[in-house]
Write a structure and sequence with these properties.
Layout: H1 12-16, H2 25-35, H3 52-56, H4 63-77, H5 82-94, H6 102-106, E1 123-126, H7 134-149, E2 154-155, H8 165-169, H9 173-189, E3 194-197, H10 200-210, E4 213-216, H11 217-226, E5 238-242, H12 256-264, E6 268-271, H13 298-308, E7 313-316, H14 319-332, E8 337-340, H15 341-350
Parallel strand pairs: 1-2, 1-3, 3-4, 5-6, 5-7, 7-8
Length: about 350
Amino acid sequence: MVSLTACMQCAVCSSSCSMRYAMNIRKLIARYISSGDDFWSEELWNCTTCHVCQDRCPRGIPITDLIVEARSRVIESGKVPTDVREMLESIQKFANPFGVGKAKKRGWHQGKFRFADEGEFEYLLFAGCGVVDDRIADVARKAGELLEAAGVNFAILREEGCCGNDVKAVGEEGLFELLREENMATFEEYGVKKVIVISPHCYNTFKNDYGLEVYHISEILLKAIEEARIRFRKVIEARVAFHDSCYLGRYNGLYEEPREVLRAIPGIELVEMLRNRENSLCCGAGGGNIVRDVEFRPSLKRIDEAGIVAAEFLAVACPFCLMMLEDAVKVKKADVKVLDVVELLYESVFGVEE
């Protein structure tokens, strides 16, 4: 691994950083090199692990990975910020970072879908932590209904654990390993071979840390569209911009699948914001920031960028992005609506033409 001492202070990292007004990576690295102290500052809790600095570093320094390692050392010492500690405790107790009781997460499906203990299935639909939010639960149910319409043989769990992606991102390796062991035991119990996820955070850790065969919902729905297993009933005449999730895009290279789903919907005009694909601006939720009150919010800037291209809808493929960007729209009082790709497809498939 390339060391921080290879840094040539070019400032590509700090100028690219999604949270550059809340932390300055170049200065922190310079201080580390000059002082010989540990690579640490409280500012590093603000990192969203968006991976831009690491991808763009001309010296190949794995900056994001080193930030997570630094967080891990601090957590081992017991010096954890209150909001991060509360997030970790909530995941341990309730299997979600929001402090919402397990009953809310258990009931997201409203009895609509088959459970994994009720017969054979090809895919497990893993809903993720976001379903404790009513809006995200609705997206998950619509995803399930679209899978049924496409003839996909899937089941769900009666009770899901947390995938642990953001636990690992804040540096709590011990808890992450525990969550992984518990989830793998559950998957083995029910003979899970293939997993469909709604959250890119779940996708990232299931693929890269668990080694599972995992699909983002957009991949499965695109295949169904291409094979004509999904039929459209309603034309949606709208100008739509797509926001790339860091964990779907930069981490795992899935840029085109959500866009192809949108392009397939009759009437949609897909437009690109200035920063897109590998250059996309982070929404600000990653690395534990979904539950933290950070003064700088890149989601506000992202809404401005959607306005520049006159988008009527800002489409996302991540529950955390949906939460952050929808809140930003309210703050900005912007004339754009944030929708998941699943919601737009659902409206075209099940909606009634006016």
